[in-house]
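Batch 3, record 17
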Amino acid sequence: MGAEFCIDLLLRCRNVFHIRQVHANALVNGTIQDLVVANKLLYTYAQHKAISDACSLFDGLTIRDPKTWSVMVGGFAKVGDHASCYATFREVLRCGVTPDNYTLPFVIRACRDRKDLQMGCVIHDVVLKHGLHLDHFVSASLVDMYAKCMVVEDARRLFERMFSKDLVTWTVMIGAYADCNAYESLVLFDRMREEGFVPDKVAMVTVVNACAKLGAMHRARFVNEYIVRNGFSLDVILGTAMIDMYAKCGSVESAREVFDRMKEKNVISWSAMIAAYGYHGRGKEAIDFFHMMLNCAILPNRITFVSLLHACSHAGLIEEGLRFFNSMWEEHAVRPDVKHYTCMVDLLGRAGKLDEALRLIEAMTVEKDERLWSAMLGACRIHGNMELAEKAANSLLELQPQNPGHYVLLSNIYAKAGKWETVAKFRDMMTRRKLKKVPGWTWIEVDNKTYQFSVGDRSHPQSKEIYEMLMILIKKLEMAGYVPDIDFVLQDVEEEVKKEMLYTHSEKLAIAFGLIGIPEGEPIRISKNLRVCGDCHTFSKMVSAIMRRSIIVRDANRFHHFSNGTCSCGDYW
DNA sequence: GTAGGGTTAG
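Prediction for the assembled complex:
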């Protein structure tokens, strides 16, 4: 068997068994001595994720060239064995082999998958040292790595410096902004098309995802039209992304339409739809959907259960939630992890069953994280249980002493209880630890335009009218006998605390924006960024009562529909 | 032989 014939056979291998046969023949007739053959064998093993076969072949090789090394580095990255990927790359450097433009993207991909920015920067130095930053694939991988490590501006700088951008790099950059800022990803999508790039399906999925993250319904409809007009078929990934987009933009009906149109559906599509009902407080429908899914012989996974439990929690379906939680391991072989416990703490906590929630936390054997304690703290806040709030808060600060958000939340809880000395203590602690809360920001869609703003913002051309309207609104609220919590809090606090508390005004601003240009009968739609400090719920309820307008608030992926002072989403606060 | 896509907990 000659080398050429051997390579031809490898090209036609359909499984690991076939590759092993070719490998055995190559050993018998000595073709394995040909490095081209050995490399091709290694590569084929790696393609089939047969990394242990690749390893034993690699270990037995007496000669290796740069390609041999790159295939191994890539093979480890492909199967997610990042430690071996790093180790092999270090070996490359140690042996004095010059890393090439094939090897580097693999190592950079490993850094990306581990979100290992530190290692990513080290590799970037290696890239520069060897002058490989001009290589298209290397630089595209670096952009992606920086983006996924959440240092988007670094990714952007690199992206802007690239000589030739292609569809892939544009897509990476659009996706990068989808995770952090907001409208920039859609701006980039427009710019990409202006520069003559025709988006493919992967690019469209990325844009759909960006609309979902932004909750931008106007853009969502546009993107949907674009997809239809350009004849993109609704495969399982694009379809699922669109379900999620419509759900997060506030229309569970449109999400369901997409779901019904999809020919192929898998556990991810079903879970996305269950989550969609959950955000919207439609717990019963989420449960019905879960049963439909089981009837279609689709096996639920961890995420399905997170979505389902969240749906129960959000709709106050306590019995059902407990039943699903208890059945997940016994009936569906899905072991509860910290996320499922967090849902349960939220479910029990909101219902006032704080002791039960605490017992659950104490009994759990999986590692506790800050979001679990945040759920507990949130429940304590609703029910005014200071004793348990302190316990939750201490665990929270122990886990994340550097997170300014926790200090702010805590001082707000103490402020509400009138414990000003403790408020001051936490403020001092923040100052001493040099922690500063990043101001929150909010956005809103009015008449198909999007406005983004933060506290004290005067960038809007109608800013003067908005502030006037805001004052009228506050006066109306006062006259109607409503005193927003924040104003009560502001009475006796120090200047610095007052400043922090004023973040909540962004919510008032959102409402003021909403009052301009929305036709009668149309709901006022507010998307609220997760990081905005404060609670928009009380305020929205009051405004909807006074203005006799319905309001939809999106708050951390939950939707709250208010009408005449009542929150109809089923959530109870 | 190298790069980009979907679901989840406060």
